Amino acid sequence: MTKNKFRMIYDDLAGNIQNGILKANELLPSENELADTYKASRETIRKALKLLSEHGYIQKMQGKGSVVLDVTKINFPISGLVSFRELADKMGKRAKTDVVSLEEQVIPTDIQEHFQTREEPDIWKVVRIREIDKEKIILDKDYLLSSLVPGLTVDICTRSIYAYIEQVLGLSISFAKKEITVETPTEEDRELLDLVGYDTIVVVRSHVYLDDATMFQYTESKHRPDKFRFVDFARRTR
Amino acid sequence: MTKNKFRMIYDDLAGNIQNGILKANELLPSENELADTYKASRETIRKALKLLSEHGYIQKMQGKGSVVLDVTKINFPISGLVSFRELADKMGKRAKTDVVSLEEQVIPTDIQEHFQTREEPDIWKVVRIREIDKEKIILDKDYLLSSLVPGLTVDICTRSIYAYIEQVLGLSISFAKKEITVETPTEEDRELLDLVGYDTIVVVRSHVYLDDATMFQYTESKHRPDKFRFVDFARRTR
DNA sequence: AAACTTGTCTTGTATATACAAGTTTTTCGG
DNA sequence: CCGAAAAACTTGTATATACAAGACAAGTTT
Fold first, then answer.
1. Strand ranges (E), B133-211
2. Tell me, what's the pLDDT at A197?
3. B115 CA to chain A: closest CA distance, Å?
4. Are A213 and B67 in contact (CB under 8 A)?
5. Rounded Cα distance, A200 and B201, in Å
6. Are A136 and A129 a contacting pair, CB within 8 Å?
7. pLDDT tens digit string along B151-194?
8. Which residue did the predictor score with more confidence, A108 or B228?
9. How far apart are the first and last CA of chain A?
10. Which nucleotide lies nearest residue B64, CA to C1'?
11. N or C: which end of chain B has fewer CB within 10 A?
12. Residue A113: which of A9, A13, A207, A50 has the closest Cα?
């Protein structure tokens, strides 16, 4: 249960849009009406609507109202910040994670650059293969600060590292910077993935931060090109 | 000149972060102090800080303050909604646009699907090649509703269609849904681009909308894989 | 020395009010 | 009946106030 009022209103409206109670191209009730029905102030309603707008659920128009957007088509926010487990659950695919290796070590110099520190902290190096429908699609290499993420096990890495970090360790993951490029696969990539003759591979490099702005994770995620799909909703910020 | 107060405060602070007056890992002045110095209410300051936070300039921490993030490294928001011209200008590369064809026609059925309409409106079909440093890197196919975007010329398409739409026609582009995939290039792709032997190509499909939520443009943008780079900043929205 | 309390700083949420600005509907004069 | 003006909506911006909640330092007690 979320205890934030505007968040609960957001969840309710978003749910109603998702399941079709509020249909595309319809106008929402006015902010004042919503304030009445939810017994909240207009500002609180506006916070909820702002979230809906940012997530592509509605379009606000001054003087007119808020129109519901067609969310059925595109909406699988591969964008944003979600773990493989969360994604796989949502999509209902038969997904499987295989931990190739898990070791604690002093940070390699090439990885150290990404953490932008002159120290040489211990890190976990986790190598995992993601299978979807029995095919080895994704090769993930994660580097996590041991000091912040203690006690990693193969079991945790098989399930979800994010769930462990948030629910067991009580840390809160806050934001990430991602870069998507296309590169030539290495010998290792060819060995570990079912590459079926492609000469390119999609590489997603992520720097992930906690809510106190400390970077705790660097990840290289290599995707088989034919299975890669990235969806984005972007507003023009003038 | 933007006349919005919170926007001006945002611009000022963002500028100070960009040019190093506010350094990474420093704390901003508290919201109340900022309210004093900018002669604004705390809520207005908070609006500005929210924007900064969303764009990856700062991290807010309850009870502590807002810390400046390191924006020097990653920040080239290829993400978001910008035109090729705006991008090229910002990066200072020697960029060139070549208009292969520009014709007004009845919408083809395969394109009609993307507009999700049963009517058969007239559209502009624009095919353009983007050169960077003398190499043909990107092949753009744009489909624009003639009714909303009248009077297209080769000259306009060479410069910037977005500038024409916004500054001449006075429309305001609002948001876009994008999808990035990797596919096999067609014969046409090979002819028009300098593909140097790659057997894959990055395809960015975009649906672009005006501020009244009408979709006015569909675009297929094909990128040479070695020159493709997509950078994203994402916050975890729990 | 360790644990707890308190005061004061910070940001987060919720509310109320006023007016600006854009859209739609109604009204009223010709 | 038509059309322009007025009224009645809508959202957008700015301000003020109150209290909740987290961080932190300085005491105070154990």
1. 135-145, 173-183, 201-210
2. 80
3. 12
4. yes
5. 9
6. yes
7. 999 999 999 999 899 888 988 889 988 888 899 999 999 999 98
8. A108
9. 36
10. C10
11. N
12. A207
Chain A hits for B202, CB-CB cut-off 8 Å, are 182
The answer to whether some atom of strand C lies closer than 7 Å to the beta carbon of A222 is no
B231 → chain A, closest CA residue: A179
pTM for the whole structure? 0.88
Mean pLDDT of chain A: 88
Q: Find the closest chain A residue to B58 by CA distance.
A: A213
Chain A, 62-101: which CBs lie within 7 Å of strand C?
Answer: 62-64
Give the pair of three-digit tokens for residue B31: 């919201």
Residues in reach of strand D, judged by a CB distance below 7 angstroms, are A 28, 30-33, 43, 46, 49, 60-66; B 4-7, 39-44, 47, 61-64
Task: Give per-residue pLDDT as tens, B182-235.
Answer: 999 999 999 999 887 888 999 999 999 999 899 999 999 999 998 888 888 888
**CB-based contacts of A18-23 (< 8 A; 24+ apart in sequence):** A18/A71, A22/A68, A23/A68
Nucleotide whose C1' lies closest to the alpha carbon of residue A42 = C15
Q: Which two tokens stand for residue B135?
A: 């190499």
- Distance, in Å, from the CA atom of B180 to the CA atom of B43, rounded to the nearest integer, reads 38
What are the Cα distances from residue B226, in Å, to A180, A203, B219?
Answer: 11, 12, 21
Q: From the centroid of its chain, how far is CA B72?
A: 20
